[in-house]
Amino acid sequence: MPKKLVIIDTDCGIDDAQAIMMALAAPNVEFLAVTCVFGNAAVEDVCQNVLRVLSVCERQGIPVFRGSAGPLVAASTSFSDHFGGDGLGDVIEDKDPLWKEKLQQEHAVSAMIRLVSEHEKQVSLVALGPLTNLALAVRLDPCFPQKLRDLYIMGGNKEGIGNVTLCAEFNFAMDPESAYIVLEEFLCPTYIASWEYSCRNALSWEFFEELLSQDAAAARFMKTITSKCWAYSKEAMRNKRDIYFGPGFVPYDAYAMAACIDGSMVLESIECPVRVELQGSIARGMMALDRTNQLKKSHSAFVLTKCDVAKFGRLVMESLRQPCRK
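== Si:ch211-201h21.5 ==
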């Protein structure tokens, strides 16, 4: 079986690190590149985080590209402290002073366009952060989306329940205009792992403890970066996510990555047009599902709803048994 060619576009926080490790552990994935975007942290921190994850897994040969430092339209944005100020829990002290030299010189958007053009209809693009790099790619090359094999997005919400504003999910809220552009102009098969999808297919906290107890470098790394992070605290989540969905361990970005690796992971989805709301103080950044065709759009997306949680858990567990050499 030929390997699936994958580019991951990421704002590398702790859950992105989990998703990247999942792709690294998958025998059917060939990693073309990691492109970085602002989001969970400043893009400079994101780049360092990606390099750190690749180093832990002994996969430093995968090229890493620096991309957008801010949203498409807004002048500036504040970064989330969900995973700490640096995106990886603020526990890493031995920063690499040579990290800039390990990045590719080409801009992430340019690299994305080039790689997809070189492997037309073969590349699966997995977007784990704000969609700024993707929006810029279609502006620079309007044919970019049709050259993709498919697109997997972690982001958006389908019920008006937000995690950063009252009604919007973080990745879309950080750059609503880019999310709007991508969902309007990317006509390739598009699969959306929304916030609700992740939360409604949670793993148990007992699973999380077992996950981190594995005797492998990746597991030890994950244990370190989650050790002081409130987002991985059962107590903190009782006043946050648990109010809507009940208790559980939710590695958000890993759900989109798992769907890319193994389509049978997704048991149910809704196929319909979607649109991102750009107006309003409450609903800006929210994703709306058009199940009655009121928007008269020409294309639909697959909004994932039900996951094979047992199979997903096995992929997550395997992802921290690294380094593993292919």
